[in-house]
Amino acid sequence: VTNGGKTTLAEKLKKMLPNCDIISQDDFFKPESEVETDEHGFKLYDVLDALYMDEMVTRIRSWIKSPASSDGVTEKPQSACDNLKNVYILIVEGFLLYNYEPLNELWNRRYFLTLPYEECKRRRSTRVYQPADTPGYFDGHVWPMYLKYKTELEENASMQVAYLDGTKSQEELLSYLYSDIIQELNKLME
């Protein structure tokens, strides 16, 4: 969900996990001139066609082939991670990751932050976007697209996703994610 805390959590996890890097879907938006406009005059940013998804897949695959060469990898594992010194972790964060089929074979874990309508709209209203949200944009485009993609995800029975309540504190979410990731890494190491 937009404004659910994805980027903040990813950045905090990067500081806690060994050899960790982040790729953000926000870095793959097309320029405004290439983004379609609907019949209401809304720029359609909350759809896959507004993003260079093939470039994102290429960047992720490149990182997977050579994680140690990435500029963004942190190298200071916490003591709890000492047995994971030779493990590299890539966090990919974004709002349309699981609805793009070429990415689905790449994930070890999937997390999906949710927010109720009122909280999401409140948070969105505090952010400044370029281009700026036009009046009615949240209700006319952003929220309907979130519901559409969330429904598609929920209907895909083969997709294993951990749904997280974005109204919980950052500390609570971070604690859960960190523990879950460490457990997953330990399983992969066995």
Task: Describe the protein in words.
By secondary structure, this protein is mainly α. It has one domain: Rossmann fold (3-Layer(aba) Sandwich). It has six helices and four strands; from the N terminus they run H-E-H-E-H-E-H-H-E-H. A two-stranded parallel sheet has the order 1-2. Strand 1 (20-24), helix 2 (53-65) and strand 2 (89-93) form a beta-alpha-beta unit. Helix 1 (6-16) crosses helix 6 (170-189). The protein is globular. The model has no long low-confidence stretch (mean pLDDT 90).
Short description:
The protein is mainly α. It has helices spanning 6-16, 53-65, 101-104, 117-125, 137-155, 170-189; strands at 20-24, 89-93, 111-114, 162-165.
What topology emerges from the helices and strands here?
Elements lengths: L5 H11 L3 E5 L28 H13 L23 E5 L7 H4 L6 E4 L2 H9 L11 H19 L6 E4 L4 H20 L1
Parallel strand pairs: 1-2, 3-4
Helix pairs in contact: 1-6
